[in-house]
Q: What sequence folds into this?
RNA sequence: UCCUCGGUAGCUCAGUGGUAGAGCGGUCGGCUGUUAACCGAUUGGUCGUAGGUUCGAAUCCUACCCGGGGAGCCA
């Protein structure tokens, strides 16, 4: 069946099925007892009694479904078909509930099965399922309480991010998904080609689509810098791809990243923005998704609300890398990995700082140049053996690095020699260097893993459970 | 990629050399304005895959596949 045929059937063949009904969340919030309601949704559970049967109906508009009361024997002929997962339309009257778990319910007058679901083979039960199992049925897991809540919070996060930047005059810019600079320094990339990989090695005479190797982007930062040096304040928000063989609860091969970039801005301004940003997003999500957040608090992680309050109300700790090293030394703790100036902080060190020592987000700044990217601005007045760059990482309790940013090197000569020291060919980056030749200004920005942010807010333990259809090594079924 | 734990009914798991089990789910019946409903009966298996050891393997050995947790890389 073509899509056109399907749409045609939807609108012409089953008009009653697509007539706009009311959203359950609206009815629960604003419905007047005695009003007639017209609801569409999926049956979450059915309980049958001698005189009445009860349905929990959910349409995704909120965590809570609405209870539908079916008086027997009026609906006896339909009860068998109203299994878990069935799509139904319910017409009836909103009445005060005699039950204890809800204030209102729908006294059904007409029930229409729109799409049946075979109880023998429908994979979702009324009982709780493990997240591991639900990942194998990602096309159905949005119908569960947890994933409905995750997706509503994810939506609220995205909306809050746009609102935050838009209120501050940042332009949302669209940087390319396909990139031909294969050495942005962020690890393995996915190749993009029109050459048939099933054929033997392509003849050298056959050019690929772009005439040079192309890849899926690992970051929109370099392009965002170009746009910031014209528009002052910009941000990207889009998909990002890393082909690393990472198998952890914090990594995806395809994820969403937010990258603000500000002209006329230094590292302090960058850190200030990162902190204000997180406070804003948490405030918005707590306000807009109170019910879902209460669910995460009670069913997923009993610390999510306390953590959110800390983000919103406490100022983030700020510490220089060099101080952090000294602090780790003084802690008296024995770590598995060495703590030494010039070595990167390991997960265990970051966790100690964010979770134990400070108990709130920490911004670590001014890292050694040797462990950071070429584009980060060299600090002045450093002893040569202790050269640092204006980098900052925001470390969040339970998540680790959620934001990584820096002030960018705006001086042409310094940037060129840094690239050469890092083994990069300045010729390849000619346009990036042009930005320093013409009207260069101090500028800064950061990258935020959107999915990690959702993970952080919801308390979900695995990043694969905060994105609808996760892509990870050996997993792209849906 | 490394370390580690695991893969047995639709789901969650027990079974560690001798006839494959429980709870939940599904189905049928009963009961009840129910709400993780309850009570009874019933249904349900290529024990991840392929080899090997053994009279006999879910169980022991080898290889591989897949999943969880941790680490590295990072966002």
A:
């Amino acid at each position: 069946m073509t899509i056109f045929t399907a749409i045609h059937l939807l609108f012409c063949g089953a008009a009653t099925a697509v007539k706009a009904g009311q959203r359950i969340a609206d009815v629960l919030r604003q419905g007047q007892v005695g009003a007639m309601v017209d609801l569409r949704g999926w049956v979450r559970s059915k309980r049958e009694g001698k005189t009445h049967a009860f349905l929990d109906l959910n349409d995704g508009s909120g965590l809570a479904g609405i209870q539908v009361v079916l008086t027997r024997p009026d609906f006896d002929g339909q009860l068998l078909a109203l299994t878990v997962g069935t799509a139904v339309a319910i017409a009836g009257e909103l009445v005060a509930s005699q039950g204890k778990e809800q204030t209102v319910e729908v006294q059904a007058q007409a029930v229409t099965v729109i799409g049946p679901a075979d109880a023998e083979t429908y994979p979702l039960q009324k009982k709780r399922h493990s997240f591991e199992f639900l990942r194998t049925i990602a096309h159905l897991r949005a119908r569960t309480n947890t994933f409905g809540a995750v997706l509503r919070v994810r939506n609220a996060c995205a909306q809050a991010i746009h609102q935050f930047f838009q209120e501050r005059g940042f332009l949302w810019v669209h940087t390319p998904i396909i990139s031909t600079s294969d050495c942005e320094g962020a690890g393995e990339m996915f190749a993009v080609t029109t050459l048939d990989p099933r054929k033997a090695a392509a003849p050298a005479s056959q050019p690929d689509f772009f005439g040079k190797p192309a890849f899926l982007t690992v970051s929109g930062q370099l392009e965002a810098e170009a746009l910031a040096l014209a528009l002052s304040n910009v941000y990207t928000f889009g998909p990002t791809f890393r082909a690393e063989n990472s198998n952890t609860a914090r990594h995806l091969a395809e994820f969403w990243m937010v990258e603000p970039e500000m002209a006329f801005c230094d590292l302090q301004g960058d850190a200030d923005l990162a902190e204000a940003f997180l406070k804003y997003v948490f405030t918005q999500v707590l306000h807009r998704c109170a019910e879902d957040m209460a669910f995460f608090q009670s069913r997923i992680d009993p610390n999510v609300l306390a953590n959110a309050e800390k983000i919103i109300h406490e100022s983030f700790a700020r510490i220089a890398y060099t101080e952090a090293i000294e602090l780790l030394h003084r802690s008296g703790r024995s770590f598995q990995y060495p703590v030494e100036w010039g070595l990167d902080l390991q997960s265990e060190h970051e966790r100690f700082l964010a979770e134990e020592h400070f108990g709130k987000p920490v911004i670590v700044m001014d890292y050694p140049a040797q462990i950071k990217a070429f584009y980060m601005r060299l600090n002045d007045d450093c002893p040569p053996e202790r050269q640092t760059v204006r980098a900052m990482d925001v470390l969040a309790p339970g998540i680790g690095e959620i934001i990584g940013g820096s002030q960018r090197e705006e001086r042409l000569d310094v940037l060129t020699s840094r690239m050469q020291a890092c083994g990069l060919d300045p010729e390849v980056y000619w346009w990036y260097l042009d930005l320093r030749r013409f009207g260069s200004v101090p500028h800064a920005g950061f990258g935020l893993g959107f999915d990690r942010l959702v993970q952080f807010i919801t308390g979900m333990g695995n990043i694969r459970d905060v994105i609808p259809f996760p892509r990870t090594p050996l997993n792209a079924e849906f």
